[in-house]
């Protein structure tokens, strides 16, 4: 083979290799279905940190881009379970579980990706009824139907424990008890009265009739009934 033939053969091989390369477009992202077709700078150090996260369904996350040139644009990469990302890079996970991706592109066209695994949302914590909590802590009984709190008073407790009947804030005591205290056995009146038919210095004792249960306890009922007390003479 002479020199001319060798040169022709070498040139032909080079042309074939060159044409084969002509039909290829450079792949700058391993993400199939990428929203951004290329990264402008192969030397870019732009990243999203962290590059992958786990997020509960419906939760939000702010994408953090480092070493890129603002402004940034954010998109959800097709092919996953989706989600939404706003212009500020706040991603909202969908209600479905699975995987999705967010792409961020800077002003130079450099692109970085965030891989997101969406998990089931946690059960919400039970709602605390502060009114009910306060009522119970104060010794009351809370009615969730009417949202009201009722308290058992000391009088009601004393009344029912003594065998009485409590209604409308009043106790009907057993015949021998008054606010839990037994009726006195002595039948005396505390004071004498001024006789109506004698001088003011002449007094006669009151006659005991019965005991009455009042908020002050047992009170004697005497006759005749007057508010005047005899202090100077207690004889009849």
Structure explained in plain terms:
By secondary structure, the protein is α+β, with helices and mostly antiparallel strands. 15% of the residues lie in helices and 33% in strands. The chain has helices at residues 3-22, 130-137, 154-161, and strands at residues 47-48, 52-56, 60-62, 65-66, 73-76, 84-85, 90-92, 98-105, 111-119, 140-143, 148-151, 165-167, 170-172, 177-178, 181-182, 192-194, 203-205, 207-214, 217-223. The model is unreliable at 10-30 and 232-236 (pLDDT under 50). The chain has three helices and 19 strands. Strands 2-9-8-5 form a four-stranded mixed beta sheet, with no helix packed on it. It has a three-stranded antiparallel beta sheet with strand order 3-7-6, with no helix packed on it. Among the domains are: 47-119, Sandwich (Immunoglobulin-like); 183-223, no CATH class. The longest helix is centred in the first third of the chain and has 20 residues, at 3-22. It is rod-shaped and about 120 Å long.
């Amino acid at each position: 083979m002479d020199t001319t033939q060798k040169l022709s053969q070498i040139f032909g091989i080079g042309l074939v290799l060159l044409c084969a390369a002509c039909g290829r477009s450079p792949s700058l992202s391993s993400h199939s279905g990428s929203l951004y077709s290329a990264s402008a700078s192969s030397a870019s150090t732009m990243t999203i940190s962290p590059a992958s996260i786990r997020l509960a369904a419906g939760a939000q996350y702010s994408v953090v881009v480092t070493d890129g040139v603002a402004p940034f644009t954010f998109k959800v990469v097709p092919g996953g379970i989706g989600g939404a990302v706003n212009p500020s890079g706040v991603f909202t996970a969908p209600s479905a579980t699975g995987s999705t991706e967010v792409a961020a592109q800077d002003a130079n066209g450099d692109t970085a990706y965030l891989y997101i695994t969406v998990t089931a949302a946690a059960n919400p914590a039970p709602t605390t009824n502060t009114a009910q909590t306060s009522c119970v802590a104060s010794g009351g009984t809370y009615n969730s139907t009417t949202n009201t709190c009722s308290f058992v008073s000391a009088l009601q407790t004393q009344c029912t424990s003594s065998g009485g009947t409590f209604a409308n804030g009043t106790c009907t005591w057993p015949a021998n008890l008054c606010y839990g205290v037994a009726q006195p056995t002595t039948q005396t009146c505390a004071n004498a009265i001024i006789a109506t038919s004698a001088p003011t210095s002449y007094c006669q004792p009151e006659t005991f009739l019965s005991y009455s249960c009042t908020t002050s306890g047992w009170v004697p009922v005497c006759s005749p009934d007057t508010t005047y007390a005899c202090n100077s003479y207690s004889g009849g």
